[in-house]
Amino acid sequence: MAGRLTRRTKIRRFSPDGQSVDREDALAVEEPLEIRVNGASFSVTMRSPGDDFDLVAGFLVSEGVIWAAEQLVSMRFCAGTDDQGLQTFNVIDAELSADTAPPDLSLERHVYTSSSCGICGTASIEAVHKAAHFGHLDDETTYAAELLGSLPDRLREHQKVFDRTGGVHAAGLFDPAGELLCLREDVGRHNAVDKVVGWALREGRLPLGGTVLQVSGRASFELVQKAHMAGIPVLAAVSAPSSLAVEHAESAGLTLLGFSRGGGFNAYAGSERIT
User: Fold this and answer.
1) Where in the chain are the domains?
2) What is the rounded CA–CA span in Å between residue 34 and residue 43?
3) Higher-confidence position of 130 and 50
4) What separation in angstroms does the CA of 101 have from each of 37, 42, 58, 77, 191?
5) Which one of 14, 61, 99, 208 has the fewest beta carbons within 10 angstroms of its own beta carbon?
6) What is d(CA 38, CA 56) in angstroms, rounded to the nearest whole number?
7) Which of 46, 45, 3 is nearest to 27 (CA)?
8) Do the first three CATH levels of 31-128 and 145-273 match, i.e. the same topology?
9) What is the pLDDT of residue 104?
10) What pLDDT digit, counting tens, does each position of 97-127 carry?
11) Is CATH 3.40.140.10 what the domain over 145-273 is classified as, yes or no?
12) Cβ–Cβ < 8 Å for 218, 268
């Protein structure tokens, strides 16, 4: 799978003085993944190949379909082949437990979910505002400001695909001592978060109380919602949050940090957790 994460391509590099040189560059691979639930197609998302089972599990958590490992009986790659007849590993069928209600297919994503927008094409915008299974986040864990300010650099140290391509986002889950529990990279920032959440679900760790989710991009409403659905009390982003992200964080009891860089950050909600 490692070979599918990047792809070499020939480029012509131009310098400021107009001189050029032919060379090779590494690109982050982007491919579609069809997600099926109990055999029925539910969504197609554009993603970086790798950690696909984590992605599917996290996506189902974000969609409010599951919230415990025992609800996800199995996942398997289905038939999907390229022009040469080789398995593409781009279709996954997730089987839910008998007592878990399947997703409402009337909310199925139209066409596909792009790697830049995880809620584009949702059948109904009201469906975005899902009831979180873990409810209001009353986690009383506190976090040192100095440690929170150090997380972007700690995240960056482990971004191996970004080092090769400069073309992927990252999401890292940390404990209050700053230990990295899980890191995932993807061309889609929402996919990177889903992969972290899916890892946690499959490890039986949900809800993720006492953790911080550090992301490499901005803090959108969608990322706040994903953190809320997984029971993550603190979300930190290196760029800005949106107004709706702040509103949702306040209503969910979630600590939201933005412009987390250079050791500092802005606390937009939930600053009482910071010491």
Assistant:
1) 31-128, 145-273
2) 6
3) 50
4) 11, 14, 17, 22, 23
5) 99
6) 13
7) 3
8) no
9) 79
10) 999 999 877 655 544 455 555 555 444 334 4
11) yes
12) no
Q: Are strands 40-47 and 31-37 parallel, antiparallel or unpaired?
A: antiparallel
pLDDT of residue 89: 86
85 vs 4, 13, 60, 80, 88, CA distance in Å? 17, 36, 29, 9, 9
Residue 80: pLDDT over 70: no
Contact 210, 234 (CB under 8 A): no
Residues labelled as active-site residues: 117
Neighbours of 103 (CB within 10 A): 21
According to DSSP, residue 102 is labeled P
- The correct answer on CATH 3.10.20.10 for the domain covering 31-128 is yes
Whether residue 32 is preceded by a cis peptide bond, meaning omega within 30 degrees of 0, is: no
Burial class of residue 233 in the structure, from the number of CB atoms within 10 Å of its CB (0-12 exposed, 13-18 middle, 19+ buried): buried
Q: Beta-strand (E) ranges in the chain?
A: 6-14, 20-28, 31-37, 40-47, 72-77, 91-96, 169-174, 180-186, 212-215, 234-237, 255-261, 264-269
Kind of pairing between the strands at 180-186 and 169-174: antiparallel
Q: How far apart are CA 24 and CA 32, in angstroms?
A: 25
Task: Say how far apart CA 97 and CA 87 lie, in whole Å.
Answer: 27
Distance CA 57, CA 73 (A): 11
pTM of the model: 0.89
Residue pointed to by tokens 């760790």 = 205
